[in-house]
Design goal:
This protein is an all-alpha fold and 214 residues long. About 4% of the residues have low confidence. It has 2 domains: 104 residues, Rna Polymerase Sigma Factor, Chain: A; 92 residues, Winged helix-like DNA-binding domain superfamily/Winged helix DNA-binding domain (Arc Repressor Mutant, subunit A). Helices cover 71% and strands 0% of the residues. It is built from 11 helices and no strands.
Length: 214
């Protein structure tokens, strides 16, 4: 984000804090591009087949507007990190809503057999999407199995930082906020995680689908 963007955001936040409803609306829309990536990545794959990203984003907007004053009074994290938190929480809420609905039990649908936690599943999905094509289903399934094995070999923290940096598109400072570590530590852990991913993919005959980001 440029200095001009920072200044514009701060001006909008100050207007919103003073009760400007138009500014408040603009504030919650500022990072929609990133939030769409977050929702696509974090929404349970069983639910993503039946729930539109824009619907989840709209629910995130409404929650952000409802809680904006709470954020303005604290400002413990950056606006982007706060909005991302709300988007991830909304993905969890939407998944629970749909997966618990007896009339439309999405649990019966085939789910990519990723490691158990949500970050692992998200990383397997994202990597597989970059490495596979819609054709040759058998080869695709075999490749996805290799990706699952590779992801399982990573430490949980490494999975998280790779998701946040590459597939959510957050910068190093925002990733550090999300993970609760310093920017310097985030940078070191990210390089280590990417190196480890390259190694485990290489062991399975696969190339890393992206280069490191500064």
């Amino acid at each position: 984000m440029s200095a001009d963007d920072d200044d514009r955001t701060e001006a909008l936040l100050q207007r919103a804090a003073a009760g400007d409803k138009d500014a408040a609306t603009q504030v919650v829309l500022l990072h929609d591009q990133t939030l769409r990536r977050v929702i696509r990545l974090r929404l349970d794959r069983r639910v993503a087949r039946r729930v539109d990203v824009e619907d989840v984003l709209q629910e995130t907007h409404l929650e952000a507007l409802r809680r904006l004053q709470e954020f303005l009074e604290d400002r413990g994290v950056s606006l982007l990190v706060w909005l991302r938190f709300l988007a991830v929480q909304r993905c969890i809420t939407v998944a629970r809503r749909h997966l618990s609905a007896a009339a439309r039990d999405a649990r019966r649908e085939k789910l990519l057999d990723a490691p158990g936690d949500g970050t692992s599943a998200a990383l397997v999905y994202a990597l597989s999407a970059h490495l596979t094509t819609p054709s040759r289903a058998a080869a695709r399934d075999e490749l996805q199995g290799s990706v699952r094995d590779a992801v399982s070999a990573l430490e949980p923290f490494d999975r998280e930082i790779l998701c946040v940096r590459h597939f959510e598109g957050l910068g190093n400072n925002e990733a550090a906020e999300v993970l609760g570590i310093t920017s310097a530590a985030a940078s070191k852990r990210y390089i280590r995680a990417l190196t480890r991913l390259k190694d485990v993919l290489s062991e399975r005959g696969l190339d890393t689908p992206f280069a490191s980001r500064t």
